[in-house]
Amino acid sequence: MKAIVAILCLLLANPSFAGTWGLGQFENDQALDLSSNWAESGSVADIRKALDAVHKATYIDASEAVTALVAAEVVAASLGKPGKDLPEDLGSWIERQPASELQALEPLARAAISRITSSGNSELYELWEEEDVAEWLATVAELDARLAQP
């Protein structure tokens, strides 16, 4: 019982990290839920919309950033560079999509990553600054590198 109370206190003390349990793009509840939703009924338009939202925002909230990073993972996988933790159902969905349409989103995905990883306009960056921004930036840089590879 004491352990449950301690966990609840930790979550309530830092609610911004509730549901986040790792550095990777698929190591949080929002990303996994989104991944499942896209795998069931998503479209390439959903991926573009997620990436466009980052470009239209003056200030990128954490939810938009997480969504865009998952979208960038989809684009990377369509280029044959999937992340090691890409959910299987999302990988299957990507295989059924028009690859050329997803691959055409590569510049938009890389630009979204650039905005998300900039201090001053990204809530997700600010949240990681409170924890371990260097490790998170390295993880996101690995995604960007996969997108950049020919």
Notes on the protein architecture:
This protein is mostly helical and 150 residues long. The chain is 69% helix and 0% strand. The chain is built from 9 helices and no strands. The chain has helices spanning 2-13, 29-41, 44-56, 62-78, 88-96, 99-103, 106-116, 123-129, 133-148. The chain is globular.
Main sheet specs: none
- Please tell me how large the radius of gyration is: 16 Å
Q: State mean pLDDT (0 to 100 scale).
A: 86
**Which shape, going by the Cα principal axes?**
globular
Distance between the termini: 53 Å
Helix percentage: 55-70%
Structural class: mainly alpha
Order of helices and strands: HHHHHHHHH
Which ranges are low-confidence, i.e. pLDDT below 50, for 5 or more consecutive residues? 1-19
What would a concise description of this structure say?
The chain is an all-alpha fold and 150 residues long. It has helices at 2-13, 29-41, 44-56, 62-78, 88-96, 99-103, 106-116, 123-129, 133-148. The N and C termini lie far apart (53 Å).
Keywords, please?
150 residues; mainly alpha; 9 helices; disordered N terminus
Detail the topology: elements first, then pairings.
Elements: H1 2-13, H2 29-41, H3 44-56, H4 62-78, H5 88-96, H6 99-103, H7 106-116, H8 123-129, H9 133-148
Helix pairs in contact: 2-4, 2-5, 3-4, 3-7, 4-7, 4-8, 4-9, 7-9
